[in-house]
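Q: what sequence does this backbone want?
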């Protein structure tokens, strides 16, 4: 049984992962900004689920999350850095504040949580799982800055691997399109019309949750560094 923090636990991949981990006998502490969704999930998932309402961009919220996670679970074995967003636009039309929001959430949010938890994770031979994307490997039009943040996520995982592969497990999960509310952070109506059908045909978030369970439950001595998972036949 592992004690798992999941940032961005209120929706999509994070919520599906919480559900599957609880079904498999683990314990989860969720973090997100949407209190109503987190309360609803806690009611569904029961005693082995707890949560903190907070924003990964805010270091005090991150500290409260870590402290409340330890109060609720006793210790932390796995950190899943899942909170993230993509706001798609051509570079020339994009708002600077949208680029800042993606960098602050997708990169600095992960760093905030790693900085807090790394010592304990090293002590416990724990596990950091970062949500990358196929955009960690490719740069696409209209989502260049999102792709830049996801390239950074992969580099952050690599940096942990270089210094700590003997002390902790580090995994980057890199999905293609997954059918979650993710695409609705984009406000550009033309792009939404083009992209929404692709995301609706995307993977089920439970497909990604199953990969999380797979890497967390890998036998002792085995670290799965990366999983790239796309919709297929
Ligand atoms: N869906 C895809 O096709 C896809 C593909 C590749 C990678 N990913 C990655 O997978 C991760 C999860 O995305 P998803 O598809 O599950 O999207 P989602 O359904 O929109 O969920 C995003 C989660 O992130 C949380 N979040 C966003 N900003 C936050 C902040 N500042 N502080 C705390 N939590 C925040 C949201 O919670 P609140 O709103 O409650 O704060 C929500 O729980 C993201 O990192 C995304 O980049 C998604």
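A:
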């Amino acid at each position: 049984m592992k004690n798992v923090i999941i940032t961005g636990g209120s929706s999509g991949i994070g919520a599906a992962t919480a559900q599957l981990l609880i079904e498999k006998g683990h314990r989860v502490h969720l973090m997100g900004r949407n209190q109503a969704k987190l309360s609803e999930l806690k009611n569904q998932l029961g005693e082995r689920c707890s949560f903190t309402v907070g924003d990964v961009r805010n270091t005090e919220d991150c500290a409260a999350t870590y402290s409340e996670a330890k109060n609720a679970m006793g210790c932390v074995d796995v950190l899943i850095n899942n909170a993230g967003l993509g706001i798609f636009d051509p570079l020339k039309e994009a708002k600077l504040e949208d680029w800042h929001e993606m960098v602050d959430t997708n990169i600095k949010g992960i760093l905030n949580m790693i900085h807090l938890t790394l010592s304990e994770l090293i002590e416990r031979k724990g596990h950091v799982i970062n949500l990358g994307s196929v955009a960690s490997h490719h740069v696409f039009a209209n989502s260049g800055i999102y792709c830049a943040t996801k390239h950074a996520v992969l580099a952050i995982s690599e940096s942990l691997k270089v210094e700590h592969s003997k002390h902790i497990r580090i995994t980057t999960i890199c999905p293609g399109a997954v059918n979650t509310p993710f695409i609705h952070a984009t406000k550009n109506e033309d792009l939404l019309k083009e992209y929404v059908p692709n995301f609706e045909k995307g993977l089920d978030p439970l497909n990604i949750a199953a990969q999380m369970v797979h890497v967390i439950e890998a036998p002792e001595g085995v670290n799965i560094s990366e999983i790239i998972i796309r919709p297929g036949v």
